[in-house]
Amino acid sequence: MMMYNLFYIIGIILFGYFEQSQTSNEYRDDSSLGEPPYPFNGSYSMIILIGGMVYGHSEYLSKPQRKDVIISNGKILSLMDPSKTFSFIESIQKSQLSILPITIQDQLIIPGLIDVHVHAIGGGGEQGPYSRTPESRLSELIQGGLTSIVGILGTDGISRSLSALLQKMKSLEHEGLSTWMWTGSYRIPIVTLTGSLQQDLILIDKILGAGELALSDHRSSWPNKSELVQLISDARTAGMLSGKLGVIHFHLGSALTKIDLLWQILNETTIPIQHMYLTHMSSRGDALIEEAKKWIQAGGMCDFSADTDVLNETETMDTLNKFRLEKLPLKQITISSDAYGSFPEFDSTGQLVSYGMGLPNSGFKTIQKLVLKYSWPLEEAIQFQTSNPALYLKLSGKGFIGKDYDADILILNKTNLELMYVFSKGKILKTPTWIKHSMFEKY
User: Whole-angstrom Cα distance, residue 313 to residue 233?
Assistant: First the structure.
């Protein structure tokens, strides 16, 4: 009964953590920002999340289930019926395994979020050198519920380099996240690490494709159809050879040309539509939103940039509600934050009139608003940053809460959907009183 008593005591302690988290958003001033507080700072063979409602356990937007989640070696070992959990713990009480049970009292368990569009080494610069945006910060990414990110360059492919981006992705991976990246930037010919798109895709595991390649934007290089055909064909072939999807991630501007070139390529070649991944499709006006509608109906994939509170944006929220009402295939849509990228606004003459920066929690805030303000079921709202990007980009082990999946898990408050815990590959990155920081964040 010793194990049972230990389980009970820790459960009571952790319930106290939850109570504290609901009355204060301040984190404790721990002496080490890199290590969680007791008892989370121990090394455990298993972590058991007890008493929660599990969302995202199926590809088919199933209703939540009351299951206890058993985590071991960075993976989800089992979704256990609560009636069996105590006997499971007792069955291994004589072994050398160390267990951390966490009682979560009906809170909500969802998969860790995936952001396909993060300017992890910063972006911007449209207002001159002083307007370059800062690099990503680990604690901010975690606070946004992100356990997987895809890093990207943007307008600046000169003073921002793919080498620096790759190193940043490795750094964030070391800190506990799962990371990938896009090669290239806004322009053609694209910048690469090895000298060609195909070599980048085949030889560098973290590279999923090229992007964000700008179309119909005054900052793009205005590629012609033959240049795009060559690039997309290279991505497709290299994807086949590397076991990846092989995709070009297109940044769309607000020019009248919209995605005309891409429609021409679809109509005149045999290149499948899934190798063209369009972003910013909800935030460039009604004409491009109509193109997004037609694109997903044709089987293509669109990425919507999350609305930002600072700019009082509602385009993405409005578009999602509209598309849902029209029963469009929402599985063809992802949401990204455009975190640490600049948000320049230009007038009709091309003059810069305002400037801002994307934040990594904007995707998570979109999910909260869909549920709390617009009454979406949580299992439906989370798909845009969980199952949809995971399935589309072939991110193995990601996007779901299920046996043998990576233990990328968020625990949300059942009332206000506030983020309480973050697990990434089984490691605790956030508790109600603590959040992990990278080496130099505290200075």
Answer: 36
Say yes or no to pLDDT of 251 above 70: yes
The string of DSSP letters for 35-86 reads SPPTTTTS--SEEEEESPEE---STT-PPPEE-EEEEETTEEEEEE-HHHHH
- Round to whole Å and give the CA distance between 184 and 77: 38
- Tell me which DSSP letter residue 404 carries: T
CA distances from 20 to 37, 95, 203 (A): 14, 34, 48
Strand intervals (E) in 137-197: 146-151, 178-183
pLDDT at 175 over 90: yes
In contact, 89 and 99? CB cutoff 8 Å = yes
Span 177-182, average pLDDT: 98
Catalytic option among 68, 115, 338, 406 = 338
> b or e along 400-419 (b: 16 or more beta carbons within 10 Å of the residue's beta carbon)?
bbbeebbbbbbbbbbeebeb
C-alpha–C-alpha distance, residues 239 and 231, integer Å: 12
Within a 10 A sphere around the Cβ of 394, how many other Cβ atoms? 14
Q: How many CB atoms lie within 10 A of CB 387?
A: 23
The token duo for 145 is 């519920």
pLDDT in tens, 334-368: 999 999 988 777 777 777 777 788 999 999 999 99
DSSP line for 265-326: HHHHS---GGGEEEESTTSS-HHHHHHHHHHHHTT-EEEEEPP-TTTT--HHHHHHHHHHHT
What is d(CA 114, CA 363) in angstroms, rounded to the nearest whole number? 9
Segment 188-196 mean pLDDT = 96
Q: How far out from the chain centre does Cα 50 lie?
A: 25
| Known catalytic residue at 68 | no
Query: Which residue's entry shows tokens 């007792």?
Result: 90
Q: Amino acid identity of 75?
A: K
Please state, in angstroms and rounded to a whole number, the distance separating the CA atoms of residues 20 and 33: 19
Q: Which residues of 77-114 are buried (b: 16+ CB within 10 A; e: fewer)?
A: bbbbeeeebeebbeeeeeeeeebbbbbbeebbbbbbbb
Q: Is 375 exposed, middle or buried (0-12, 13-18, 19+ CB in 10 A)?
A: exposed
Best CA proximity match to 227, nearest among 242, 239, 240, 210: 210
